[in-house]
Amino acid sequence: MPVVAIAEAVALSPTPCSRRIKRLEDEGYIERYAAVLSPKMTGFEIEAFVQVNLQAHSDANIERFNRAIAETDAVVACHAVTGDFDYLLRIVAHDMEHLSNVVLKRLVRIDGVRDVKSILVLDTVKASHGLPVGIDYSAG
After folding, report:
1. DSSP secondary structure string, 53-96?
2. Residue 12 maps to which CATH number?
3. Structural domain containing residue 13
């Protein structure tokens, strides 16, 4: 969004608005700017969440797993989590064969991985890339 449009929306003139945006960038509140591409329009028909458990939580296993995930382009997000599994991955794939190759020929073959469970996305009800800033949930 152009600075002029942002300034208008927040009732500031463009120069102070530009300075505030720059400060937010410098202080790390704004990490980056990105275009959000449509997976389907770019040929990625399948989305899956994959749960991964490691055999042991040794530094070597974790490091090996993290390195392998960083080299796997189909994994678009990887989170170390609490609960019944160690990692939650978001994978986008062109089709089921592509997903199968990622899971069966890549993920389960990472040394130190105990098990992998896939959850296919049937429909996305809500997907936001923003944060709920300025929302007060404490009021009834």
Report:
1. EES---HHHHHHHHHHHHT-TTEEEEEE-SSSSSEEEEEEESSH
2. 1.10.10.10
3. 1-34
